[in-house]
Each structure stands twice: as C-alpha cells, then as structure tokens.
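Hello,

Our lab assistant flagged a job as stuck in the queue for most of the afternoon. It eventually completed. Since we weren't sure the result was trustworthy after the delay, we are filing this so someone can double-check. Below is the sequence as submitted and the structure that was eventually returned. Let us know if re-running is recommended.
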Amino acid sequence: MVAEAPTPRERVRATASKQRLFAAGMQLMGVQGPQSVTVDEIAASAGVSKGTVYYNFGSKDQMLEAMLDFGTETLLSALHEAASHEDPYQALRLMIEVAVDFIERYPAYAQLLLNERRTERWAMQLQVLHTQVVEVIERVLVRLVELPSELRSTVSAALFGAALFAVRQSASPQRPGDKDSAVRATMLIIDGLMAGGTTR
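-- returned structure --
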C-alpha cells in the first residue's frame, strides 16, 4: 500500500516544528555547545515532546544533523532569492544582508560553521554548505567584475568568511546590534575589487 502524501496543512505543521526545533537548538547550543545540549532541553524549548523528537529523528545526532540541513536550506533559499536581483552589485549587498541577518539571528550556527568544520562530526555536512554558499556568491561576483578563473572561488570564499567574521564582531557585547557596519565592511571588499579590476 502506497503511503499518502502529506497534505499542505501537514507540511506547514512539519515546517513550523522544524523551525521551532532549529531556533531552540541553535539558542541552546550557543549557550551550552552542541555536545552538552540534550534532547529534553531542545524539545522543551521548542514546545514539542521528547517522543516527537525521537519519532521524527531517531537520535540526538540525527536531530542535530536535520537541524543543520534545515538551516542550510533556509539560508541557501534566501541567498538564491537575493542573487536573482538583476543588478549584481545590489544582489551581493542583498546576499550579505541575508547572511548577516541569518547569522545574527542564529549566532550558534556561525559558531558551528567556524569551529565544527575542523571536526569529523559535521565536517562533511558543513563543508557542503560552505561550498554551496561560495558557488552562489561566485555566480553573482563574476557578473560584476572580471576575475582570473583560478581566483574566483577563493575570493568568493573570502567574502563569505569576511561576512561571518564581521557579523560576529558586530554581535559582540562591545558593539551590540551593529549589523549595518558588518554589511558596509563586507561591501568595502567588493568596492575594492571593482576599483582594482575590470567591471562588467
């Protein structure tokens, strides 16, 4: 017997639950770290039962992997939408704003990107995200300025890294909520590329 496809309402409920779990997990991991946070704590914070978590994911590690996937899908979807702007300069600005907003909202996700890529646990998963983000940036960047083919990926990765670092700086207790500075600082790199290269 073929299982029936979920209804639109069921899909909305599933997405809403994933969003709650993602937000709760990211908040708790930002405080305690991924190793210390428990399924009970994430489930309670998300407003779902522990049984629901295990029914949907099977284990804590599988839940964390699914949360990372959900975060990846959410970030990439927003980046792709911003990248579709017809003006590549404005597209890059929108993409930086999207990344900064996302990382500012989920700082623990940025911490995972920066730290967990060095460990075996989620290295592959986070590397895939990093590669996909860099590819989106590169596709827009080459619409704006001519770069040697061997440098395109490296420059795009540097832009992503600069945005990560800038937003972490702007989220520090010494400079809370200075999102605009993070965006402007990253855009200065793009301005420098335009000034030093050949714009299209």
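-- support follow-up --
The delay was a queue issue, not a problem with the job. The result is valid. The chain has a mean pLDDT of 80. The chain has nine helices and two strands.
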